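Service request form, structural biology core

Requester: graduate student, group of Dr. S.
Request type: structure prediction, single chain
Budget code: on file
Notes: please return the result as structure tokens.

Sequence provided:
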Amino acid sequence: MTATFAGTPLVIIHSVGKTFANGVVALDNLDLDVREGEFLSLLGPSGCGKSTALRIIAGLSEPTAGRVEWRAGAGARRQIGFVFQEPTLMPWATVSDNVRLPLKLRGESGADSAPRVQEALDRVGLAAFAGAYPRELSGGMKMRVSIARALVTQPTLLLMDEPFAALDEITRFRLNDDLLALWRALGKTIVFVTHSVFESVFLSSRIVVMTRRPGRVFTELAVDAPHLRDARFRTSAEYAALCRMASEALAGAMGDA
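Core staff response, request fulfilled:
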């Protein structure tokens, strides 16, 4: 099942392979385009190389074969926001200071960065908690802080590595809703790693289904549904049909179909 997608490529992964020092082959001949303005989900079983692919795009890991090409120019690599599986907040710092960290590392003063920190906190609904500490926050709120920290640099590309996997279902649904609202409002390109069929269908404009390790692209699915998605969409026949299609593709990628 293959689809053709319009849009200007922002990042192109050419025949990328990754073999770790212990001999584990995580990726093999991975070809992938990330297109400007899209919400792309990488869907696959645990251990299939989704997170490894994300880290290679971010420049946090180097491929052992192939290459990553940035069509937007050499400066695009510096315009990346990364949200990890865990919030990774500094427990001794306030919410505001945690969000400010990337700007501080760039050498920006507190006065210069304050408006952007405030804007990022407003975007994730945490303006009232700027002076709070991580220990005072729920799991969902900590993840919102992590998202605000990724947004504060105003990145071209936002990479998210299963950020909601550890949260309860109600919180996860709420954050899915808010993330889609952010995507629509800011026009960012998002690459989102998940092993949840339901989450990938709800969030994405396109889903790339990956094989078992060593990971490569099995197929791509267009999510041809309105971008304004809500609780009614989750219970619609359209959503159920798209989830069934993605589930069948995932089963095929795992060799179960």
